[in-house]
């Protein structure tokens, strides 16, 4: 079976076949800053990925989405996302945010975070 099943508007990316390095994410067993991602090329040259990302508190760092949208669900912690126009959003555990393609700004991790994200 193909890594990607395309049934019209639904795309199913099979974890077991998409990336030889994929393994279930165990939060207590990962290095800070490491990501556990499932990525596969989707139809029409699109790219989809999903994964968990852990990051320690630090001052703002550049954050941009030049080629894809990102849907963020903050599992743990607190972060502030600030757009280049100065608009900011404070994310706390349980919050969700859609970051559109073309976004530029900063990401500030105020309390250690565990982020689940989907980019496409």
Automatic annotation (TrEMBL):
<dbReference type="Pfam" id="PF05899">
    <property type="entry name" value="Cupin_3"/>
</dbReference>
<protein>
    <submittedName>
        <fullName>DUF861 domain-containing protein</fullName>
    </submittedName>
</protein>
<dbReference type="InterPro" id="IPR014710">
    <property type="entry name" value="RmlC-like_jellyroll"/>
</dbReference>
<dbReference type="InterPro" id="IPR011051">
    <property type="entry name" value="RmlC_Cupin_sf"/>
</dbReference>
<dbReference type="InterPro" id="IPR008579">
    <property type="entry name" value="UGlyAH_Cupin_dom"/>
</dbReference>
<feature type="domain" description="(S)-ureidoglycine aminohydrolase cupin">
    <location>
        <begin position="67"/>
        <end position="115"/>
    </location>
</feature>
